[in-house]
Design brief:
It is a single chain. A hairpin with a 2-residue loop joins strand 1 and strand 2. Helix 3 packs across helix 4. The C terminus is likely disordered. The chain has 7 helices and 2 strands. The longest helix is centred in the first third of the chain and has 20 residues. The chain is elongated. Strands 1-2 form a two-stranded antiparallel ribbon.
Length: 176
């Protein structure tokens, strides 16, 4: 067995242990219905949109998206605002509570449990651990940070977000 294979097997075993030790145990992982989550995720990636634009992007009838948006608005997860570029248009955008709901929905591991364990690590070990995991993810096949096929090192332009998901573009709220 190669050293790389042995390292991979040990890592896989530890990854299972990390998951079993630190996975969230605070009830169902998602309080969001699938359609609601899809609208929130899309807005988080695309930025503020009109209901019509969101419907076109999600390939759904405008009336369906409008109903979902109204529901999310009542929950305090979305809000409507005038388009600063064209006051005739109304945009939908995530509220701070909407961003928080998405963040919680995406959490697989309990951040509280991890924080308590990391607080007990020797100085610098938490940084080394996260840097090592980041490097491993960046070098994975198919990663935009993966090795350059020409052998010239990593390709710049990494993505953030969940493994297996579309890249997440960090979008800030436009000024009012």
């Amino acid at each position: 067995m190669t050293d790389e294979r042995a390292h991979a097997e040990r890592f896989a075993e530890l990854f299972r242990a990390v998951y079993l030790t630190f996975h969230r145990r605070d009830g169902p992982r998602s309080q969001l219905a699938g359609a609601s989550r899809a609208v929130l995720e899309h807005l988080a990636m695309a930025g503020p949109l009109t209901v019509g634009e969101a419907a076109a992007h999600l390939n759904r009838a405008q009336s369906v998206i409008s109903e979902i948006v109204a529901h999310l608005e009542r929950q305090g997860l979305l809000e409507r605002e005038d388009d600063p570029a064209d006051r005739r248009r109304t945009l939908i955008w995530l509220t701070p509570q909407g961003h928080d709901a998405l963040r919680r929905d995406r959490e697989v591991l309990s951040v509280d449990l991890l924080a308590r364990a990391m607080a007990r690590l020797p100085p610098g070990h938490a940084d080394e651990l996260t840097a090592g995991l980041r490097t491993l993810v960046d070098l994975a096949p198919g990663s935009r940070e993966g090795p350059d096929p020409g052998g010239g090192g990593p390709v710049p332009g990494g993505v953030t977000g969940r493994a297996g998901s579309q890249p997440t573009r960090r979008v800030t709220r436009p000024p009012r």
